[in-house]
């Protein structure tokens, strides 16, 4: 019986493989195929106990507010990325097949808990590093939001790092670190590569007590938090990335997705998600900006039609350098304090957003990978990087929160800064130039979709 089942399965797998791969073995010409990628903000609260870390909804509210690289044709690279998505589909099917075969031969149906444990263990093997929390603990607490979120941020880190390694041809340095006050993280940094001057993709899972300074920052964002004896137990986790390419025609990209949980004096828990993805080019390219925003809009529209317009405006407001009267880039989406309609619903939305980071950015990188540039264009990129530094050090909440949290790892917090930048006295581009066009867009944000 097992042999018959295996032959039948093999035929099904072959047919499925042909069906998945055949459409993508031809030239890829339409941006709509990029939708395929959709399918392809920091440790477990051991000091707070499992009960403290268990999610509990007590009330919900939504507070709205060098050019060296590969020379293969761009079309071929897009096709390669799409093939990866198709391969993932077949791999998923194969995993189900193997599981079915095993169950048929043993005539035993595995318990639901065992299936999930296998899945967690298998997924952890694909990460850049073992997760911050011990795998056995993740398996024991597989139903808790902290486990779901940690698995998501680890997966996001691995997917993005490997996509960038494919472009650059250089491996990330993987650096695990621990925080004495509780938790730790995994920093993946690629520095002075062939394509990327500096690329960082960090995961952190931390817990402990908020300082008064950090709690004050939370309250300034609409959170009224009452601690016990001046202390607020918390857990926070997230994935954050900033990529600074060498070529001024390849834009900088940033994304961050995070989860916070805080216990107040009376035992009440407040939780919320935050995050976003935004693009910061040195030169405006309307096609790139439209592609980037379209991918984000598709992810948002799956959950609420108002998410994209609201979070796009929020992004333009947040990534705004007030002392320069200009936005940091062409935007994207940004949200914070998101705690409705339910914890599971918000998590699903955050997961959809996290799945966009590769299809949003990698096609743009491949497109401009070998664009030529002049010394003047490189100088302009350095000036724009100076603006990036100004925003991150003066306004960015994540940087400010990290610096205000005891035991924070400064190297990981300042990972977002470029390797090189420039500040020219009284710099102003000439009218009619592409540099002046870029400033016009930054001073008057556009609607890209």
The H/E string reads HHHHHHEEEHEEEHHEEEHHHHHH
Give the class from helix and strand content and strand pairing: alpha+beta
Distance between the termini: 55 Å
What is the approximate shape?
globular
Averaged pLDDT? 79
Q: Roughly what fraction of the amino acids lie in strands?
A: 15-25%
Q: Summarize the amount of helix as a percent range.
A: 40-55%
CATH architecture of the domain at 43-75 and 163-443: 3-Layer(aba) Sandwich
Under the CATH scheme, which class of the domain at 43-75 and 163-443?
A: Alpha Beta
Poorly predicted regions are: 1-116
Number of H- or I-type helical stretches: 15
How is the main sheet built?
7 strands, antiparallel
Which key terms come to mind for this protein?
two-stranded antiparallel ribbon, 45% helix, alpha+beta, 7-stranded antiparallel β-sheet, 449 residues, disordered N terminus, oxygen-dependent coproporphyrinogen oxidase
Please write out the topology.
Elements: H1 2-21, H2 49-53, H3 74-106, H4 112-124, H5 135-140, H6 145-168, E1 173-178, E2 183-191, E3 196-210, H7 212-220, E4 232-245, E5 252-263, E6 269-280, H8 286-301, H9 307-318, E7 320-321, E8 326-327, E9 331-338, H10 343-354, H11 357-368, H12 375-394, H13 397-404, H14 410-413, H15 434-443
Antiparallel strand pairs: 1-2, 2-3, 3-4, 4-5, 5-6, 6-9, 7-8
């Amino acid at each position: 019986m097992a042999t018959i089942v295996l032959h039948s399965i093999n035929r099904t797998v072959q047919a499925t493989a042909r069906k998945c791969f055949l459409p993508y073995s031809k030239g890829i010409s339409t941006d709509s195929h990029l939708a395929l990628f959709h399918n392809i903000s920091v440790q477990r609260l051991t000091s707070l106990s499992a009960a403290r870390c268990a999610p509990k909804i007590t009330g919900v509210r939504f507070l709205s507010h060098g050019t060296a690289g590969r020379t293969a044709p761009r079309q071929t690279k897009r096709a390669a990325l799409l093939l990866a998505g198709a391969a993932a589909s077949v791999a998923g099917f194969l995993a189900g097949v193997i599981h079915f075969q095993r169950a048929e031969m043993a005539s035993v149906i595995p318990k639901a808990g065992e299936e999930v444990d296998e899945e967690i263990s298998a997924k952890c093997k694909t990460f850049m590093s073992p997760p911050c929390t011990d795998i056995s603990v993740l398996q024991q607490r597989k139903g808790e939001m902290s486990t779901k979120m940690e698995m998501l941020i680890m997966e996001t880190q691995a997917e993005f790092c490997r996509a960038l390694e494919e472009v650059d041809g250089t491996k990330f340095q993987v650096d695990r670190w621990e925080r004495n006050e509780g938790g730790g993280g995994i920093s993946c940094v690629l520095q002075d590569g062939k394509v990327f001057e500096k690329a960082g993709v960090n995961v952190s899972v931390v817990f402990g007590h908020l300082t008064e300074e950090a709690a004050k920052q939370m309250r300034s964002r609409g959170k009224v938090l009452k601690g016990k004896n001046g202390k607020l137990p918390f857990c926070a986790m997230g994935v954050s990335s900033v990529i600074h390419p060498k070529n001024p025609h390849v834009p900088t990209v940033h994304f961050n997705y995070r989860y916070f949980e805080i216990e107040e004096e009376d035992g009440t828990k407040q939780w919320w998600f935050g995050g976003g993805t935004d693009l910061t080019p040195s030169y405006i390219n309307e096609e790139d900006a439209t592609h980037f925003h379209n991918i984000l809009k598709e992810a948002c529209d799956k959950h609420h039609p108002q998410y994209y317009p609201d979070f796009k405006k929020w992004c333009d407001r947040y990534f705004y350098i007030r002392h320069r009267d200009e936005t940091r880039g062409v935007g994207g989406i940004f949200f914070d304090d998101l705690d409705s309609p339910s914890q599971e619903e918000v998590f699903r939305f955050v997961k959809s957003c996290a799945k966009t980071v590769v299809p949003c950015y990698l096609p743009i990188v491949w497109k401009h990978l070998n664009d030529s540039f002049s010394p003047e264009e490189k100088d302009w990129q350095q000036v724009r990087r100076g603006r990036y530094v100004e925003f991150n050090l003066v306004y960015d909440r994540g940087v400010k929160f990290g610096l205000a949290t005891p035991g924070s790892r400064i190297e990981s917090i300042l990972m977002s800064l470029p390797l090189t930048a420039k500040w020219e006295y009284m710099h102003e581009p000439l009218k009619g130039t592409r540099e002046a066009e870029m400033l016009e867009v930054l001073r008057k944000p556009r609607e890209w979709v």
